[in-house]
Amino acid sequence: MTWWSGPAGAGCLVLLLCALAVAGLRLRQGPAVRRARLLLAGGGAVVGGPAALLPGWARQGAARLLRTVRGRPELWCLPAGGVLAVLGRSVLPLLVSLPAVPLVRHRLAGVRRERERERSRAAVIDLCGAVAGDLRAGRHPGAALAGWSGAGLGPGWSAVPAAARFGGDVPEALRKAGRRPGAEGLNGVAACWRVAVDGGAGLAAGLERVAAALGAERDQREELRAQLAGTRSTAVMLALLPVLALLMGAALGADPLRVLLHTPAGLGCLALGGLLECAGIAWTRRIVRAAEGPGSGRGT
User: Fold this and answer.
1) Which residue blocks in 180-202 are alpha helix, DSSP H?
2) Burial class (CB in 10 A: 0-12, 13-18, 19+), 50
3) Deepest in the core among 2, 163, 201, 226, taking most CB within 10 A?
4) Does the pLDDT at position 272 exceed 70?
5) DSSP state, residue 152
6) 132, 146 in Cβ contact below 8 A?
7) What is the pLDDT of residue 190?
8) Is 5 exposed, middle or buried (0-12, 13-18, 19+ CB in 10 A)?
9) What pLDDT, in 10s, does the model give residues 201-230?
């Protein structure tokens, strides 16, 4: 009998389940609830709710786990692999969860970068509309540009209001701020500013045209994402089918984890299935990226 099937394995399983339960309870508690509990307790430490029913060692382990994974959701692959390792009585799921951490981190980083790009694009559109409105109201261009907060445009924006206030090269500052991913529309703002200063053209009208063009591009991207939503949903469903098959097999008493992790045929099927799963995901991502066009930076 291996240690996975003995009391040590059962203890590890209980520890992991307790940690996950406490983590879920802590994450569901909003800041307002925690603040109210602290006030009612006079500012002292409060341990209440279902988490108080757990032993002290379980609460301490869960607290350490929460401190470790806070802001790093990819680390949840490790306890998930540990649970599967205990249930399947094999170290293989735990070993697989180790390389899964950087892969999940890379995927989450890509999602965060795309969200930052979307915020920058929206900020450029808002900037054009706000500055054009101020110019229509008779405000000076430098004052209108310097009054914009630059939220969503990153730290490179700080040079733009400074150039507008103190007579610097505003178009050059706008072009430098436009190097941020998603803020490429600032290059159009810089061109409008240069033409308005050198040739006396209407800056407000130019900014409104830039905002209209950027808004049309945003609408096109949103329409394309809506059309690709079905493809992504199908890919996710197909990727989850093996998990559903394992759950159904376990419910029927077939013990699929034992077959997959402790028999040569099961290990071969597991390796082949993993390769096919990765190939399917890569193929679907390639189709979606080809549909979105080059430079989209998005996957399924």
Assistant:
1) 186-199
2) exposed
3) 163
4) yes
5) T
6) no
7) 92
8) exposed
9) 688 889 999 999 999 999 998 998 888 888
> How far apart are the C-alpha atoms of 272 and 18, rounded to whole Å?
34
Tokens representing 167 are 């007579």
Arithmetic mean of pLDDT over the chain: 78
Alpha carbon distance 116, 144 (integer Å)? 25
Question: Cβ(164)–Cβ(172) under 8 Å?
Answer: no
**Both tokens of residue 246?**
């394992």
List CB contacts of 289: < 8 A, sequence separation 6 or more: 296, 298, 299
Kindly report the number of other CB atoms within 10 A of residue 71's CB atom: 6
At 208, list the tokens.
């409104």
CB 269 within 8 A of CB 260: yes
Distance CA 224, CA 288 (A): 10
Residues 16, 82: contact at Cβ < 8 Å? yes
Scan for tokens 């900020």, then name that residue: 123
Verdict on whether the full-model pTM lies above 0.85: no
Residue type, 190: A
Mean pLDDT in residue range 257-264: 88
DSSP state of 180: S
Q: What is the pLDDT of residue 61?
A: 66
Predicted confidence (pLDDT) at residue 259 exceeds the cutoff of 60: yes
User: Residues in the chain, how many?
Assistant: 300
Q: How many Å apart are CA 144 and CA 146, to the nearest integer?
A: 6
Per-residue pLDDT of 135-175, as tens digits, reads 888 888 888 888 888 888 888 898 999 998 888 889 999 99
C-alpha to C-alpha distances, 51 to 19, 21, 55, 73, nearest whole angstrom: 10, 8, 9, 21
Q: What is the maximum alpha-carbon separation in the chain?
A: 86
